[in-house]
Write a structure and sequence with these properties.
alpha/beta, Rossmann fold, 2 domains, ProC C-terminal domain-like fold, eight-stranded mixed sheet
Length: 271
């Protein structure tokens, strides 16, 4: 039984990518999902009309997947990965979205001849506005890399790196980046309340401002620094706020340290 894509893990990131694939590249008949949590699996069936099984043992004995996307949390990968080694071969491409898990890790568990693309997407993939960075091992054919690129483009922008070590910093910056932006909304809203605004209005202002600014940045050709300068009048209110945010001990060193710590944690997850 041939199937175009086997998705191992139907959690938030896996579902986000699945939604993009079904809008662009695949049909429900092209996909099987392995999802151990019954409620999550049933929700995927109800929403997308796809086939879902609870574990690898429930897959058809004659299954021959063209692509296996490993969307399992890195802490759970050890327990899951061994069941898929039997599919290793030149006709099966493994795509991992697990933070920290290296090409070497997958080759140790799947075999040295496994074709593997290590990637790091982010959750805006759910609305087709994600960015995914990939790194292929030497066994990935040109056709497989092209197919992986097509799959990843279905959920947003794609970039490739020549040095696998970059993936850890990518994980820290863009993989976790949406959380940092959402935190920005939270702290802006709280600051608005502290300045006297009603809570609901303050959250509406913060949320809409960040979302709108993101869209402006998406559509603009100018650098982010130029857009910032465009809304900053000399000696005005925005300039006064930026004086605080751009101080030597303010936002930049905090973000630099945050990305450094997240990068370090990604490397610790290599296992």
């Amino acid at each position: 039984m041939s199937v175009k894509l086997l998705l191992v893990g139907g959690g938030k990131m896996g579902e986000a990518m699945l939604a993009g694939w079904l809008k662009n590249s695949l049909t429900p008949q092209d996909v099987i999902v392995v999802e151990p949590f019954e409620a999550t699996g049933q929700a995927l069936i109800d929403t997308y009309g796809i086939s879902v099984v609870s574990d690898a043992e429930a897959l058809p004995a004659d299954l021959s997947p063209e692509t296996i996307v490993l969307a399992v949390k890195p802490q759970m990968m050890d327990a899951a990965i061994g069941a898929y080694a039997k599919y290793t071969g030149p006709d099966c491409l493994f795509v991992s979205i697990a933070a920290g898990k290296t090409i070497r890790y997958f080759e140790q568990h799947l075999g040295g001849n496994a074709a593997i693309v290590r990637t790091m997407p982010n959750t805006p993939a759910a609305v087709g506005r994600g960015i995914t960075v990939g790194y292929p091992n030497a066994n990935v054919s040109e056709a497989q890399r092209t197919w992986a690129d097509e799959l990843l483009h279905a959920v947003g922008v794609v970039a490739w790196v020549d040095d696998e070590a970059h993936i850890d910093a990518v994980t820290a910056l863009s993989g976790g980046g949406p959380a940092y932006v959402f935190l920005l909304v939270e702290v802006m809203a709280k600051a608005g309340v502290a300045a006297g605004l009603p809570k609901e209005l303050s959250m509406q202002l913060a949320r809409t401002t960040v979302a709108g600014s993101g869209e402006l940045l998406h559509q603009a050709s100018e650098e982010a620094s130029t857009l910032r300068q465009n809304v900053t009048s000399p000696n005005g209110t925005t300039a006064e706020a930026l004086r605080v945010l751009m101080a030597d001990d303010a936002l930049q060193p905090l973000m630099t340290e945050a990305i450094a710590q997240a990068t370090k944690r990604s490397r610790e997850l290599a296992g």
